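User: Could you write out the 3D structure of this protein bound to magnesium ion? I've included everything you need below.
Assistant: Certainly. Input first, then the structure.
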Amino acid sequence: MIAPGTWLGLLGGGQLGRMFTMAAQSMGYKVLVLDPGSNSPAGTVADAHLQAEYTDAKALTEIALRCSAATTEFENVPSESLQRLSEKCVVSPAASSVAVAQDRIREKLFLRDQGFATAPFAVIQSESDLHAREIDSLLPGVLKVSRFGYDGKGQIRVSSRDELRDAFHTLRGESCVLEKFLALHKELSVVVVRGFDDAVVTFPVAENQHAHGILDVSIAPARVASHVANEARQLAIDLANKLDYRGVLCVEYFVLDNGRLLVNEIAPRPHNSGHYSIDACVTSQFEQQVRVMCSLPLGDTSMHVAAAMLNLLGDLWANGEPRWERVLRNGGAKLHLYGKSEPRPGRKMGHVTVLSQQTDAALNGALQIKSALTADAGKSEPRSA
Ligand code: ADP
Ligand code: MG
């Protein structure tokens, strides 16, 4: 066991890293953040910040020397950096797991090979792949870049072969996955945690609503039949075991009208849809990340209250700083701001989790806050994607 007082290394300085850092610090650990930016959400709260690239040999050596264990909050961290650190200190998740999750082609092939149902897809890596016969069965579809896509970026919807060719060119001929566009009944996610001792736990299922490809609202527990929730949790456990995963992993699902669950994608880190765990669960997803990397027993994931989480995007700053009293006059609302100074449209600036004994009341509270803040920003309600 790695005891409190020890230094922990973190690759990435975003909001997930900030919430990890706060969880680690509250348990008495010190956190060293590696991030190339000067004013990152995690870098500003960490005990020390190394401002360097993720591949910087000197910085990686310093982490290895100073820290007993290291983790990542950024799924596009070069897996070689994790590999290199693992020669000197405990690393979770492993480079091999991150390498699968950060590459959509590897991820999809892994899921298919291991027998997890996904949306029908084809790999598109060259002009000749555009002529494959199976393409017809995947239209209308969505073309997604294999690397570095997030929040719906690097995705183009296509309904004909001509549009597909244009989209492939727009994405500069990068390796892609073409997925059939499906009518989704719901989207769900499960955060699963697996320790070095093979202990594995899941958080309650979250129900996710996206707008413009970005998570908008997450509701927990998800309003689905208990057999669907149990299946989602079990699939997440199976996936973590199959990946031999150590750490916190999020599995995103599509639910079809017939109740069938498909795995959409996996993220090798805590997830936006698991933020509710900070305020509504006995143990947060970030505390679990600390527990795994330090070989502490995993915490209880039970919810003590229902929750609805609302993302606060930069759009809400259109008329200046949002009026936070709009949020806080709901006594069950917990405000989390990430300390980002530039509120760009679509940028995640913070989130609010509304707690209530009833899921629907929590959701209504979150939606009321959303309307008030959106109206203040002079925007109409975003369309649902
Ligand atoms: P990201 O890495 O940006 O989260 P996702 O593949 O999860 O990429 O896509 C973002 C969102 O776009 C999904 O949560 C879903 O709402 C929608 N989407 C993606 N793929 C499909 C699909 N095949 N059919 C229907 N909707 C989709
Ligand atoms: Mg996604």
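The pocket of magnesium ion (ligand 2) is lined by residues 252, 265 (CB under 6 Å).
User: Perfect, thank you.
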